[in-house]
Amino acid sequence: IQxxxxxxxxxxxxxxxxxxxxxxxxxxLRGGRKGEVAxxxxxxxxxxxxxxxxxxxxxxxxxQELQVISGAFNAEYGKVMSGVVNITTxxxxxxxxxxxxxxxxxxxxxxxxxxxxxxxxxxxxIRNIEGGLHGPVIKDKLFYYLNVRNIYFGGWQxxxxxxxxxxxxxxxxxxNIVLFDSTSMLGDKEWVPMNWNEKLYLQGQxxxxxxxxxxxxxxxFYDDKDY
Length: 227
Prior knowledge:
5% of the residues lie in helices and 44% in strands. It has two helices and 15 strands.
């Protein structure tokens, strides 16, 4: 999949482009286990040694080419059984440019028996903003690519803080469940997200072009996830 194709696809993640490939389903290739797929970025292995997933994520605007090898592959790929996912990042040019993308929204429910705050909509409960810059530092020789993305996902599950995490209850002689201390263990009854997550991705590259066939590049990937 080339960069031009990814721009036309209705996707926000590289993983969504992978799911469109024949034989690739939720991290598995052709029925194999998830740990049998190798992930590479510019030829460098980024496979997690613990669960065999990818260690870092690449924003789709940084991808020049996405390649899924699900058939026979060369011996250069070690510790691989099912296939290879190889991502090639963009190489830079003499043209300055930039991108900015955003989307936001919320989940809405009509089940008033479940949610006491029915009808409440927070348009920033789900928000994504991404920006990128690229261009030359030295014409025809040194180029840069910079991409940053912040995603907050408020989720669709919410709970009410009726009690504090330190709350302790006991059963009295009449069989009733009673708080040990009802004055200090009650919550503020605020509605809070229960399955939220927030991610910050920062990716940067410096590319030095010795010749048309020889490039030296320095890549920096920063992933911060909280949930």
